[in-house]
């Protein structure tokens, strides 16, 4: 939720990446820019989706245990970034595809798998096994049944590419909202200091519900939380954020955490890091460049801001 923005704007919403995407331009109200932006979203969806008959990401999984697959430079760059984060072993795992498919939370055949099924999946979700070849942008999953899952990082990467496009067109201000992952571009049009007032997602409520606001320069805001998709079975609720270390949804007192960072893909990764940590990490704000802050929201209603003031 963004407040106090200029009247002159151009906004368009389209479905893609499995969600609703809303792009808003201020000042430079050129429909061509929005058209090119949605074409870019469609292009990356064609490359990265695992929910269609063909894509580069799907081809990698289909060739698991058989042969490497050569991909385009952008896809390779994203996979390399995802694997680097995965190998830090904090909870994010780009090889978690078999486990996600096993639970299938959010889809009609979602169910709680047996311990034996989860154990079999564990042998297929080790990201350190995935082989990359920089010389020809090839990716190899060495075991049959391994599957890539870039869903935890793709929207942030795509949002950053849209911002690159907008800056090339000379866009002075805008909002990129890919299914709730927000990236602000330029200076807020009606604030003399150029800072934006950003609503912080209440992860205990449906998407769009705010628990408070922060005031920051242009950045990305990404929330990881238990509110997105759940499975209810035998009187228990299971959220969709699976812990690759156990094979089950992460046990946590957190409802969610929102990250503010200069790059949206960084916000995606760090949202997963802090959600799995379950609490603020000492020195986190200075651990890498471009981090602006975080807001932790617990299931009991407690909030802990880090590096930002919540009002």
UniProtKB/TrEMBL annotation:
Gene Ontology MF, one: transferase activity
Binding-site residues for Mg(2+), renumbered to this chain: 152
Enzyme kind, highest EC tier: transferase
Domain of life: Bacteria
Keyword Magnesium belongs to the record: yes
Keywords: FAD, Flavoprotein, Magnesium, Metal-binding, Transferase
Protein name: FAD:protein FMN transferase
Taxonomic lineage of the native organism: Bacteria, Bacillati, Bacillota, Bacilli, Lactobacillales
